[in-house]
Amino acid sequence: MEATVHDRLDGLLFQVVQLVGLRSEWPFGDVTLSLADCVMLFELADRGELAQQDIADALRVDKSRASRMGASMEERGWIERVRDPANRRIYRVRLTEEGKRVAEQAAGIMHERHAAVFDALTDEERAGLTVGLTGLTRALKAHPFG
User: Fold this and answer.
1) Torsion over CA: 73, 75, 77, 83 (sign)
2) CB 99 within 8 Å of CB 79
3) Is this structure's pTM higher than 0.85?
């Protein structure tokens, strides 16, 4: 692929990141969440109960960072960590009722924000974006950053 196409894609990807914002946290109703908070809450809401290592893998961080995030969420009352009865060395993490409420609230607000953007696209643009993002996701999984 020629450099101009790569340059155009690089520029577009940079613009998307810039327009979405480089903030470390966003307001979601009565809470403020980082992207990592959202990923952790959404993974737990979707998958139920996870080992801390599974959370670290989903967040693409080391286990100690995932553990610190878990401790912060536990202090906020959003998760509970319990020892796995089959293997006492492993902690299992699950959402509390408050954590479920926060996850649902954040997912709803995020869906509304995305819907407003996607509704501003034409049908053709949405179809092209679906194909493009599917390919980008596949390529990033095969060639992850860092």
Assistant:
1) positive
2) yes
3) no
